[in-house]
Amino acid sequence: MRVLWYNWIRRRTPARRRGGGGERRAGGDGGFTLIELIVVLAVMSILLTVLIPPLMDYRTQAAERERGANESAINDAIRQCYAIEGRYPPVSGETGLDYLRDNYGIVIKPESYHYAYAIVDGSPVLRVERAVSK
Q1: What 3-state DSSP class applies to 107?
Q2: pTM over 0.90
């Protein structure tokens, strides 16, 4: 009974409403048209334009957090040296931080920034400069 009812409805429904029959593409291979491909590429380019800047911003934020952590570690080591030895650490090496690195175990990752330590008028000064990207 069900099959008869289905065939009866199918005969009375136009082919364009059933989704078959009348609307064939040229060539008949069932591929995508040029317009469909252009629309997909346009949508993808819009999505990439929206998504890429925030991803690049995360890298900048990570470098800033690393700089802050390095500055904090250096300042803590300077304070610790002053508390233990009663004087500021001597300036040694290329950046002035070798004494702190050797005696207080600070670990600095200078990929993004260059750090330079000096004593000016009896006070420690830490200079931080953005590294030039290669």
Answers
A1: coil
A2: no
